[in-house]
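Review box. Two proteins, two foldings.
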Amino acid sequence: MRVAIIQFLGTNCDFDCKYACDCMGIESEFVWHDEGELKNFDCVILPGGFSYGDYLRSGALAKFSSIMNAVKSFAKYGGYVLGICNGFQILTESGLLTGTLLKNTNLKFIHKDVYLKVENSVCGFAQDIEKKVLKMPIAHGEGNYFCSVDQLKYLEDNNMIVLRYSSKDGSVEDEFNLNGSLGNIAGICNEKGNVFGLMPHPERAVGDLGHDGEEIWKSLLK
């Protein structure tokens, strides 16, 4: 498997993703944001960070980068795309995923470990995860997922909600929803299940850093 790790101006989790790929025995390559095509890759990762300084909105400027046209085409024809934190924001801004990410309800940057209930979904990155609850860190100021009532119903009806913030035993309650996300949503996918965006950082729960993040890559490899 070959993975492209996209680097935007302001990306800062690119080497974290490279570390995760190395730990999983996956070949990966950095691709600069002004490239116009993606060739011979099986998966594309949009890492976390602060693309273009988060001016306007997080991910709002990155969607105009040349590489995003290639990412859209890659996804259209079945290529797997993973957007982590800022990458999730870029995917929603680009229209590859439904909804948007707003400022955390407490208006503060949150950095801590969270528990995530794994939902039954069509997501290719989660099809073979045996664990019901995963533990990963979050690190964001705009992770409050929001969409319309109709969009939420569509996500639920089509099994596109992948992860929800929860307790250690998988209870989905408001008290475990640190950023205010609608329905405790931490990650969603598209209709085909090949585009996945999440606010938690699986690349920071791999190898010496933990093992729950490895479940995302293991599922993709299978």
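Next protein.
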Amino acid sequence: MPGIIHATIQLYRGAMTATLKSFARSWLSALAVVLFAGLMVLATSVAAPLGMIGGFILGAVNALLIGATLGLIEQAVSGARRMTFQDIWDSFGQYFGDVIGVGFLLWVPIMLLDRGMAANPNGPFLAAAIFMLLFILLNPAPEVIYQARPQSPLDVIRESYEFVLENWIEWFLPLAVLVAPLGLSFFFGISGRLGRGAGLDFFQVLVLPFTLLTAWLGYLGLPETAGSAVVMLLTPPLAVAMLIFRGHLFAALHGSSRRQRMFRGRMGEES
């Protein structure tokens, strides 16, 4: 047991150190997220009156912006040079096909689920349970797309599922630590909202840090007016920092076992 604890601490320490270095090189990605959010709001206002066609347009814009975000996070995680404004421009079009493929694969069953649950007295509870399950099993889908490079949307879902089964403790422990003081109801609430998009909905990328900041500042007793300003200011950089941390954590966990990490931890102690 002490070996597991030590290996886990080393894992998070390494991911956090790498995150700080990556963010220092790639802080422009936080400005990019603000720009992308503005474009998403504009696209939503244009697509809203267009019905189903507007929905398809909005899905395409979402895939474009999420793909660009993943491209910037990939550079932050794996790159050694400082990010430039040209990198933001070059990110458009990256991973567009992967994101829209997974989104379409999930869209049909989620649409059928919504319609089926509407006629069921226990529908809201069942829907929340299903979306929480999707949130858990497909949580690493963004990292699978830009690091594992799967061949198809089905492969994204399969590799996400397999990764969670193998690494669920290490992957979800940081989130559990952040959410634990806020209660189980908070976790069920965010998982129900975020489970729909498998982490590939642009607004949902901002929902988790925004909700965490709001809840924690309220928990700490910060006045609501001041808290709102702080939340709006900190949400984009926190969203990027969380994505970068997830990227480094995924890279450390993917392709290695708990036993291998324990062995490396012991070797590090002896050296």
